[in-house]
Structures are given as structure tokens and as C-alpha cells.
Specification:
There is one protein chain. Helix content is about 40%, strand content about 20%. About 35% of the residues are buried. It is α/β, with parallel strands linked by helices. The protein is globular. Strand 2 and strand 3 form a beta hairpin.
Length: about 220
Amino acid sequence: MTGSNWTSCLLSIFFLGSWTKFAATETNGVLKTTLKIRVKVLDWAGLPPGLLERAEKRASEMFQDVGIDSEWFNCPIRSTEQLPVCQESGPTDIFLRILPGAAATRGGFHKTTLGFALPSPEGGIYATVFQKKADELARTGFVSEMQVIGCGMVHEIGHLLLGSNSHSSEGLMRANWTEQDLKKLARERLGFQKKEAETMRTEVARRLRRAVSSQSAASGPAH
């Protein structure tokens, strides 16, 4: 978005200080941390029952792999049915839309664009994944729609935590996933690089610190 602090980060598919430290414990091979984000999902595409939940579970596992916990909420589309948590907006909250293919066409996105995010210096919180693109990719037979949506959500949230210009030359944050990347994705071997994981943990810690400061300011001085 030219002339704004917001920058769109697109994911396309191509076939061929001490406060940043965090406490962590491992239970049955699962890393538990004090770093946590909350993801509010708005499914405008109307995914089949169970598919969204499985995609969210996979996304949650991928964040756990890099030391970040995530809590997922499926928010009703109609405002009259909104859950209280879906109306809250804090530094560690992420709002992720899943849109049908028509939205990508109307928005003028390239036919290979799977999603986009809006990072900002203050801490972006909005990301989008296009369901039709995920479905088209799944029809190639390399991966399932659930895997594409799950990894697509993680990629776009990754942009929000890594900042602008955060595409990498390899791994999950590559701008253009290759056929080899898709095969890795199917085997659950496509993930963040070590430096990316460190940067995201630092950003989540910064947001948590901001959230604590905001809560303290709202409650006023203790008496």
C-alpha cells in the first residue's frame, strides 16, 4: 500500500536485552513456552467441517516447533453472533481471514497468490489466506488442502512477526514455493529457519511486554 506504513506480503506458489528470553519446558517431546499468540479466524470461505480445525492444529504444531504457543478461536462471521474474545484486540492477537477465490480475483491478486499479510512497525495483526488457491494446489496431488491452508496461515502470520521484506531464499518463508517445497510440506519438513524462529520469539516477547504495560496503565497505580 503505497504511501502507508503498511506493506502487503504476498505468498505465491510456483511449480518446477534480556526480556526476550523465555521459559520453556518439554513434556512428551512438546515444547511449552511462556510466549503465546491468539489467532482469531474468520472463515468467509466456509471450509468443510473438520478441515479448518485440522489446519489450525497443524499450524499450532509448527509454531510450537519454534517455541511459540498459539491459541485459536473460530469467530462467527455475523456480528450478532460474535464471541467476546473475537472482539478483543491486543498486541498478541492476530486476525486471520480465509476468503473464497472470488475475493482474490476482485482484489487483483495474481492467480498464484495464496495469501497476504499486513505487517507494520507497531506490530501487524491482519493476515489472509485464499481457500480457492489452496484447493487448486491440493488438486495437484502433492499436498492436501488442509496442509496448504495450515502452512499458508503460518507463513502469513510469520510475516506479521518477522516484519516487512521477510521472505527467505528457502524454507517456509520462501516467496515462491517450488514442487520440492510442496513435497517437504506434505512430509511436514517445511518450516522456519533458526534465525526466523529467534526473530519471531523476540517479537512475541516484545508484544507480550506491550500487553503487560497496557494492562498496568489501564489499572492505574496500586493503593
